């Protein structure tokens, strides 16, 4: 935080001191992006005119008074794009090559020859056309997969995601996928989008990968689909409730890979978050536009592509 401290008078607070500190603050750097404390602590008058959050997702931050007010919200878009894309590619390879099964057999000292799948030519549908979804699309394309996307706006020739179909074609598109990758923000439009109907639309050989938010998936519907073999597997880095309860059936399902919300967290990621905020703080001091300004009504930073926001 040395660069931030050079640019501003910094006060570090924990949740109990937040309400007292906010009225005198110009800027809030929300480091604990899992905290729900801000809504209760937000002052009736005064307070920061800019809130920056150390995550790409802003769903926990957008309480009604903040959305309705003039406060500028920025996020940490860009820090996690490539790490998450690498993680998704790793999961695709893990499924195709049966690495989770291999490790299980190794733990049992069992030698069992198996045949595996090719990823070249497999079809991946990426739900979400922001920077993370686009990085995933580029990475999977480079590995030989055929990629298409689902987003708010259709585009037949997107440079990163091939054909992007609109959300109203979700179930139709899911039925054509070998891998479904969730990379969309959590909004009222996307909450619960992967439900029984969506899972029924998927192929029995398809795998679901979620590196977005757990609430995009109706977890009970997913558990039923996995148990009944209606889809082949799921790799889940996010969950409806985190940490995932030790009693969750997801822990014990053989066709599920569970990871603790770590897909974007690579060595040095915390410093990258600080560097991005420091850059924005310098921009503010110089009167320049801030990076990653969130459209509070949409719930994310609109992506400029081909001359228009999406």
TrEMBL record:
Alphabetical keyword list: NAD, Oxidoreductase
GO molecular function: NAD binding; oxidoreductase activity, acting on the CH-OH group of donors, NAD or NADP as acceptor
Domain of life: Bacteria
Family annotation (Pfam families): 2-Hacid_dh_C
SUPFAM superfamilies: Formate/glycerate dehydrogenase catalytic domain-like (SSF52283), NAD(P)-binding Rossmann-fold domains (SSF51735)
Limits of the D-isomer specific 2-hydroxyacid dehydrogenase NAD-binding domain: 89-263
InterPro entries for this protein: D-isomer_DH_CS (IPR029753), D-isomer_DH_NAD-bd (IPR006140), NAD(P)-bd_dom_sf (IPR036291)
Keyword S-adenosyl-L-methionine attributed: no
Name the UniProt record assigns to this protein: D-2-hydroxyacid dehydrogenase
Protein's organism: Actinomadura rudentiformis
């Amino acid at each position: 935080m040395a660069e931030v401290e050079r640019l501003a008078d910094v006060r570090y607070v924990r949740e109990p001191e937040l309400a007292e500190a906010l009225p005198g603050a110009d800027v809030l750097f929300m480091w604990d992006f899992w905290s729900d404390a801000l809504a209760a602590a937000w002052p009736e008058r005064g307070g920061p005119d800019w809130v920056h959050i150390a995550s790409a997702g802003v769903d926990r931050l957008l309480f009604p008074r903040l959305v309705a007010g003039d406060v500028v919200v920025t996020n940490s878009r860009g820090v996690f794009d490539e790490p998450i894309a690498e993680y998704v590619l790793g999961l695709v390879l893990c499924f195709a090559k049966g690495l989770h099964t291999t490790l299980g057999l190794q733990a049992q000292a069992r030698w069992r020859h198996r045949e595996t799948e090719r990823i070249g030519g497999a079809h991946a549908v990426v739900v979400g056309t922001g920077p993370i979804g686009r990085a995933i699309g580029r990475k999977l394309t480079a590995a030989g997969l055929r990629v298409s996307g689902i987003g708010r706006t259709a585009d037949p020739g997107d440079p990163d995601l091939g054909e992007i179909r609109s959300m109203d074609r979700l179930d139709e598109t899911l039925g054509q996928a070998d891998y479904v990758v969730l990379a969309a923000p959590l909004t009222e439009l996307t909450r619960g989008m992967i439900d029984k109907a969506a899972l029924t639309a998927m192929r029995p050989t398809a795998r679901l990968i979620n590196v977005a938010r757990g609430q995009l998936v109706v977890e009970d519907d997913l558990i039923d689909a996995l148990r009944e073999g209606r889809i082949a597997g799921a790799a889940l880095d996010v969950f409806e409730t985190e940490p995932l309860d030790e009693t969750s059936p997801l822990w014990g399902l053989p066709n599920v890979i569970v990871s603790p919300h770590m897909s974007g967290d690579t060595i040095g990621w915390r410093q990258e978050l600080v560097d991005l905020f420091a850059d924005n703080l310098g921009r503010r001091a110089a009167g320049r536009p801030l990076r990653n300004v969130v459209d509070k009504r949409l719930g994310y930073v609109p992506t400029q592509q081909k001359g228009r926001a999406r």
